[in-house]
C-alpha cells in the first residue's frame, strides 16, 4: 500500500489547473505548450522567481526581449511616467518622432520606420511593401527561418516535407513561397534564374538564430545582396531577434551587408511589446502616400515609444555589448568544459549574445545539417536544467542579457554541472 499520503499541489499546479479551465493548453502562445509549466511570480535582472519559491538564472529572456535584463528600472520608469499623460491618442505625439529618429540613427542605413506590436506584423508589412514595389508575388525564404505565425509564412517539416505547420492553415497561402536551403548561394542563384521576374522579395534572418544559431557563411549575405539587386527583388533581413542584440546595427551591421528592408522586435524595447519595419525611403514612402496599407490601433503607443526611446538611449549612452560578450564567451567556455569533464559530446556554438547547445559534432551550416545533431537528447537535458534552476527551453537557444554578471555565471555553471551529473547518471 502506498502510505506516502496525499500529494500536495504546488502553487504552480493550482494555477495551472485554473489556467487550463479557461485557457486552451493553459498558455496564450503555442510556443509555451512545451517547456516549464512553472508559474512566474516576478523577475529582476537575469533572474526569474516562481510562485513556489524556485529561482532561475534566465537564459531565455522572454524569448529574447529582455536584452537589458528583466524590468530595467530606467525603461519601466520611463514608460510609467509617459503613460501618466495618456496611453494612446489616435493621433501623433512627440515620443514617436524621437523613437523613430533613435532607431533609424542606430540602424544606420535605414531612412524610415513604421512601428507595430509584433514581429509577425512587421514581417507582413515588409512582404506587402515588397510586393507593391515590385508588382510581383513570389517570396524566396529559407528552411528553418521563422517569420511569424501567420498563414503565409508559418512552415514546418513533417516526414521530410516542408508545408503548413498548423491545422487550419491554408496550404494555398504558401503557394507563393519558394523555400530553399540557407547558406547556399548557388541554390539562390538558380532559383532566381528560374523565377527571377516573379520574385518580390528574398527574406531571411541574417543569422539563423531560430534554428541552431547558425552564422552566414563568408560571402553568402553578399551574394544574396548582389543577386536580389540583380533580379530586382527586395532583400529583407528579419532582425526580430538579431536586431540590437548583435550590436546597434544588428546582423546587417555585424556582417556589413545592407538589406532594403529589415524587421525589428524583441530587444528594441526592454521587454515591452514593440516591433518595427525599417527601410529605404523610396520603399517605405509607399505607406506614406497611402498606396500600401499598414495599420494598427496600438502602433506607436506611448508605452511602445517610451520603451523604445529609453532602450535606445541606454544602448547608445551605455553600450552593453562588451559586457554581454564577456559573459557569453565565459558561459560558452564553461559549458564546454563541463561537457568535456563529463565526457559527453556537448556542442556549444554561435555567438556570445545568442548561442546554441546540443549534442553531436556535425559541421552545421543550415537546417538540414542541424538535423545531424542529437537535438532530442538536448531536449531531455533542458528539462533537467530547468529543474536545477536554469531557465531554458528544449530548442537549445540561450540568450545573454546585459544583467548577466559573475554571480549568474558561477550559479549557472554550478547548476549546469549538477544537472549534467544527474542526467548522465540516469
Ligand atoms: N521573425 C523572427 C526572426 C522571429 O524570431 C520572430 C519571433 N520569435 C518573429 C519574426 C515573430 O515575432 P512575434 O513573435 O513578435 O510576432
Automatic annotation (TrEMBL):
Q: Give the matching InterPro entries.
A: Aminotrans_3, Aminotrans_3_PPA_site, PyrdxlP-dep_Trfase, PyrdxlP-dep_Trfase_major, PyrdxlP-dep_Trfase_small
Q: Which cofactor does it need?
A: pyridoxal 5'-phosphate
Any one GO molecular function term: transaminase activity
Query: Which N-terminal stretch is annotated as signal sequence?
Result: none
Keywords, alphabetical: Aminotransferase, Antibiotic biosynthesis, Pyridoxal phosphate, Transferase
Q: Which Pfam family would be a valid example here?
A: Aminotran_3
UniProt KW Transferase keyword: yes
Tell me the Gene Ontology biological-process terms attached to this UniProt entry. antibiotic biosynthetic process
The source's domain of life comes to Bacteria
Name the protein family. Answer: Belongs to the class-III pyridoxal-phosphate-dependent aminotransferase family.
Query: What's the protein name?
Result: Aminotransferase class III-fold pyridoxal phosphate-dependent enzyme
Amino acid at each position: 500500500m502506498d502510505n506516502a499520503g496525499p500529494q500536495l499541489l504546488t502553487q504552480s499546479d493550482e494555477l495551472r489547473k485554473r489556467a487550463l479551465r479557461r485557457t486552451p493548453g493553459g498558455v496564450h502562445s503555442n510556443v509555451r505548450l512545451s517547456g516549464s509549466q512553472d508559474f512566474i511570480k516576478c523577475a529582476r535582472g537575469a533572474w526569474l522567481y516562481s510562485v513556489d519559491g524556485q529561482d532561475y538564472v534566465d537564459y531565455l529572456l522572454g524569448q529574447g526581449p529582455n536584452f537589458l535584463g528583466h524590468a530595467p528600472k530606467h525603461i519601466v520608469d520611463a514608460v510609467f511616467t509617459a503613460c501618466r499623460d495618456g496611453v494612446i491618442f489616435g493621433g501623433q505625439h512627440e515620443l514617436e518622432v524621437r523613437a523613430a529618429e533613435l532607431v533609424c540613427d542606430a540602424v544606420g542605413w535605414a531612412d524610415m520606420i513604421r512601428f507595430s506590436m509584433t514581429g509577425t506584423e512587421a514581417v507582413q508589412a515588409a512582404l506587402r511593401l515588397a510586393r507593391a514595389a515590385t508588382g510581383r508575388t513570389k517570396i524566396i525564404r529559407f528552411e528553418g527561418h521563422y517569420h511569424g505565425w501567420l498563414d503565409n509564412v508559418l512552415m514546418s517539416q513533417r516526414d521530410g516535407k516542408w508545408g503548413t505547420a498548423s491545422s487550419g492553415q491554408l496550404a494555398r497561402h504558401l503557394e507563393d513561397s519558394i523555400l530553399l536551403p540557407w547558406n547556399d548561394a548557388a541554390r539562390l542563384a538558380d532559383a532566381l534564374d528560374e523565377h527571377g521576374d516573379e520574385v518580390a522579395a528574398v527574406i531571411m534572418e541574417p543569422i539563423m538564430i531560430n534554428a541552431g544559431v547558425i552564422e552566414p557563411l563568408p560571402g553568402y549575405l553578399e551574394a544574396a545582396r548582389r543577386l536580389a539587386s540583380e533580379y530586382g527583388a527586395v532583400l529583407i533581413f528579419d532582425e526580430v531577434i538579431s536586431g540590437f542584440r548583435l550590436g546597434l546595427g544588428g546582423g546587417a551591421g555585424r556582417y556589413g551587408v545592407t538589406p532594403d528592408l529589415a524587421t525589428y522586435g524583441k530587444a528594441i524595447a526592454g521587454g515591452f511589446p514593440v516591433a518595427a519595419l525599417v527601410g529605404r525611403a523610396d520603399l517605405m514612402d509607399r505607406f506614406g502616400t497611402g498606396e500600401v496599407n499598414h495599420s494598427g490601433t496600438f502602433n506607436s503607443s506611448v508605452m511602445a515609444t517610451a520603451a523604445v526611446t529609453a532602450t535606445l538611449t541606454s544602448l547608445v549612452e551605455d553600450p552593453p555589448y562588451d559586457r554581454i560578450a564577456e559573459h557569453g564567451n565565459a558561459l560558452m567556455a564553461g559549458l564546454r568544459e563541463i561537457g568535456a569533464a563529463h565526457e559527453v559530446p556537448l556542442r556549444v556554438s554561435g555567438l556570445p549574445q545568442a548561442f546554441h547547445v546540443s549534442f553531436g559534432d556535425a559541421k552545421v551550416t543550415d537546417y538540414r545539417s542541424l538535423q545531424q545533431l542529437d537535438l532530442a537528447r538536448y531536449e531531455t537535458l533542458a528539462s533537467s536544467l530547468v529543474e536545477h534552476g536554469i531557465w531554458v527551453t528544449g530548442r537549445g537557444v540561450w540568450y545573454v542579457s546585459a544583467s548577466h554578471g559573475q554571480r549568474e555565471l558561477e550559479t549557472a555553471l554550478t547548476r549546469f554541472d549538477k544537472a549534467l551529473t544527474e542526467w548522465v547518471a540516469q
